[in-house]
């Protein structure tokens, strides 16, 4: 991991190595934290822009509301802090990680009056699943771990504790020789990956899991909008693992993964075994959008100057 010089911590900019918490911090023991992953890009004109920054900050606060974590910052304040952190680190593009968490105080499951802390870190980051993956696609398996039931953990909150589910699935997939895992919901339908939403394409129709057991991905919603605007039919409906096996194309979306093709699931080749024509078309339009080359979606970009 590439470090940067400063981290924003409860309203102050502190050196990276000084951004520390007590070992009895509540979130460390019980997972009582919410976070976001956000990307900044260097645009085609050389300027810098954060992709859908306001939407990410809104989702952070919504996640906190679900978990009853009282974040002491408004959406506007979080947006400003993210930009400030990029600028103070002179980072023209990279990854942004805001996290709000229940801090040190009383121990025990009940967080009581423990303080809520907020930090924002930024660092350079390339393709999450590898640069080659964007073209060749990745190998994926169905996880033996189901995505949690919607009334077991709150699936609409991007909560740190929820990611134990993803960690178990990711470790299993990597140790079995795969790049990523797809998780089914408790009813056996395809849910999402460990940190990405999933799409399939068959006979020109794009299908993605509805907003039931999944986290409502911001890249997911962007790709749905792009695809529909390009004339594709996009259906949000449940589908099974064997429907993925016989799909013409399949791909993941996510802030980190961007738009990554799936070339194989459970040792079954998907389509031609590489990024298909629909996937490539959407990839091209997605990257044009995040780099400011499509004025139709200019409102998705928050520009800043280093």
UniProtKB/TrEMBL annotation:
Top EC class, one word: transferase
Source species, domain of life: Bacteria
GO BP field: isoleucine biosynthetic process; L-leucine biosynthetic process; L-valine biosynthetic process
Pfam families assigned: Aminotran_4
Catalytic activity: L-valine + 2-oxoglutarate = 3-methyl-2-oxobutanoate + L-glutamate; L-leucine + 2-oxoglutarate = 4-methyl-2-oxopentanoate + L-glutamate; L-isoleucine + 2-oxoglutarate = (S)-3-methyl-2-oxopentanoate + L-glutamate
Pathway where it operates: Amino-acid biosynthesis; L-leucine biosynthesis; L-leucine from 3-methyl-2-oxobutanoate: step 4/4; Amino-acid biosynthesis; L-isoleucine biosynthesis; L-isoleucine from 2-oxobutanoate: step 4/4; Amino-acid biosynthesis; L-valine biosynthesis; L-valine from pyruvate: step 4/4
Documented EC number(s): 2.6.1.42
Keywords (A to Z) from UniProt: Amino-acid biosynthesis, Aminotransferase, Branched-chain amino acid biosynthesis, Pyridoxal phosphate, Transferase
PROSITE patterns assigned: AA_TRANSFER_CLASS_4 (PS00770)
Function text: Acts on leucine, isoleucine and valine.
Protein name: Branched-chain-amino-acid aminotransferase
Organism encoding this protein: Candidatus Desulfovibrio kirbyi
Gene behind this protein: ilvE
């Amino acid at each position: 991991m590439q470090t940067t010089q400063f981290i924003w911590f409860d309203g102050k900019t502190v050196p990276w190595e000084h951004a520390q918490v007590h070992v009895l911090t509540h979130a460390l023991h019980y997972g009582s934290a919410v976070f976001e992953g956000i990307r900044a890009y260097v645009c085609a004109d050389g300027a810098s822009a954060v992709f859908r920054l306001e939407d990410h900050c809104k989702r952070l606060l919504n996640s906190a509301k679900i978990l009853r974590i009282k974040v002491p910052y408004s959406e506007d304040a979080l947006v400003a802090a993210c930009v400030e952190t990029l600028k103070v680190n002179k980072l023209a593009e990279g990854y942004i990680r805001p996290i709000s968490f229940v801090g040190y105080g009383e121990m025990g499951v009940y967080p009581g009056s423990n303080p809520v802390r907020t930090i924002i870190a930024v660092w350079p980051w390339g393709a999450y699943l590898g640069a080659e993956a964007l073209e060749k696609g990745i190998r994926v398996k169905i996880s033996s771990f189901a995505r949690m039931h919607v009334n077991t953990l709150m699936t609409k909150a991007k909560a740190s504790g929820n990611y134990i589910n993803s960690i178990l699935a990711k470790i299993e997939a990597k140790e079995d020789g795969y790049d990523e895992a797809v998780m089914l919901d408790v009813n056996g339908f395809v849910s999402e990956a460990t940190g990405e939403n999933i799409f399939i394409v068959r006979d020109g129709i794009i299908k993605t899991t509805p907003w039931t057991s999944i986290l409502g991905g911001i890249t997911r919603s962007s790709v749905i909008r792009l695809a529909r605007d390009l004339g594709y039919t996009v259906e949000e409906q449940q589908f099974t693992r064997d429907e993925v096996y016989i799909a013409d194309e399949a791909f993941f979306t996510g802030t980190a993964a961007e738009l990554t093709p799936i070339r194989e699931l459970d040792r079954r080749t998907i389509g031609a075994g590489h990024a298909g024509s629909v996937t490539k078309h959407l990839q091209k339009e997605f990257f044009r959008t995040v780099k400011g080359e499509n004025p139709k979606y200019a409102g998705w970009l928050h520009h800043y100057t280093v």
